[in-house]
Each structure stands twice: as structure tokens, then as C-alpha cells.
Amino acid sequence: EQNASASVIVQTNHPETSHQARQVAIKSAGMRRQMVYELFQERQGLGLCDHELIELSGIPGNSARPTRIGLTRDGLLKDSGMRRLTPQGNKAIVWVTTEIYDAAVK
Questions:
Q1: How far apart are CA 74 and CA 40, in angstroms?
Q2: How far apart are CA 62 and CA 105, in angstroms?
Q3: d(CA 29, CA 5)
Q4: Looking at beta carbons, which pairs linking 65-74 to residues 24 or more positions away fall under 8 Å?
Q5: What is the pLDDT of residues 5-33, one digit of tens each?
Q6: In angstroms, what CA-CA distances link 31 with 7, 13, 40, 47, 86?
Q7: CA 7, CA 48: separation in Å to the nearest integer?
Q8: pLDDT digits over 96-106, tens only?
Q9: How many CB atoms lie within 10 A of CB 89?
């Protein structure tokens, strides 16, 4: 995965264990990305806020949010225009998959 490989930099002179750890990190990021995208697909037009994504996926926020951001940058998710309240009472963006969003507005 391009984004994952860019964030895990290992030089050719680094020890073999660093290269092995890089491969594990890339594979893990790809699996996490797929899992997060599938959660959004399962939610159909309801979408997910970041706090809901964290709760449903069990992925810590410091990994879930960057994964959602990457999916958004790649055009797979978008802001639905809807907002829901967080447990703290703040408004949060509801993110949806672009294909579901696009089908809903046609």
C-alpha cells in the first residue's frame, strides 16, 4: 500500500529486523484500511463519525482517524453534510462512502 510504505521508512543499511517490521506495518495498515472501509460500507447511508468508528472497530483513535483520513484523501469517503453529537455533546462530521453518497443524491 502506497500510503503505508511512505510512512514506514527503512533505509537499505538498516538491520533486517527493521525491514521485517516494515513489512508487518504495511500489511497491518492495509488490513486496517480494508476493515475500516467495510465498516463504512455496512453502515450504508448512515455513515460514521470518528468516535463511532473507534467504538465499532475497536481501533484506537490515533490509528482509526488517520486511516479514515487516508480513505477520504483517496476519494473513498466524503463528508455527508450531516452532523451527529459526540458523547461530549460536540457536533461531529458523519463520513460516508462516496459510492453510497453519490447514489443517494442522484
A1: 15
A2: 32
A3: 9
A4: 67/29, 67/32, 67/33, 67/36, 68/36, 68/95, 70/3, 70/33, 71/33, 71/36, 71/37, 71/40
A5: 334 444 567 677 765 655 555 455 688 99
A6: 16, 28, 15, 20, 27
A7: 25
A8: 998 755 555 55
A9: 6
